[in-house]
Write a structure and sequence with these properties.
This protein has 229 residues and is an alpha+beta fold. The chain is 70% helix and 10% strand. The chain has a six-stranded antiparallel beta sheet. Helix 1 runs antiparallel to helix 2 and helix 4 crosses helix 5.
Length: 229
Amino acid sequence: RFRFHGATRSAYWVFLALPLLTVLSLMALGPFWHHRIKRYLHANAAYGRTMFTFSADVSEFYLTYVAAVALSIGVFVGLIGLVVIGVLVAGVGAGDAPLAETPDMTMGQMMIFLLPAFVYVTGVLGVQAFVTARLQNAVWNRTRLKDQAFVCEIKTMRLFGILFSNLFLTVLTLGLYRPFAQVQLARYMTSVFCLAPSGSFDEFLASEQQELSAVGEETAELFDFDIAP
């Protein structure tokens, strides 16, 4: 059985104190807070009587978020450039002619103003895919269950493609594609995640089950519970 041994005092620190400190630090502690959330969840989990271990370093979170901020700034600068170019082109193309006399140019102007929106959505999804891929890989590849390791190999571009297609089809179908999008995303995330056992995993499972059974039997005898069929 899976168990969780997180203490309430630690939960108050991770989920109440650290968010306040993150806000007071102007989000400078954001990666540190995210790292502590993952460590609290993973390091306090257990299978049977064996605790999970979590060895991801906080520097990986900071590097990921710094890179994400840099990508976001690049997207923002690109958007400003596109907007400026669009305004200039629209002004030069329209000139003093009435709007009704330049239908072709009006369509071109619409495409120019739709391009920044497309770049914005693409940029947001790209940053989201980058952060998710790096952090999920870092977290799970450094989580262990005794000698058993986990392998997570999320590809940023593949995840971006899934997120983009899911959003496009969801908007196109007015939200009807949303359940299928969730299934597609879940299917990909599980396809790139696996357990890499060290030795025989069957022996490990049998050992954990035997230990739990022994504890359960002794506890039942201690309280004089009759659980026989």
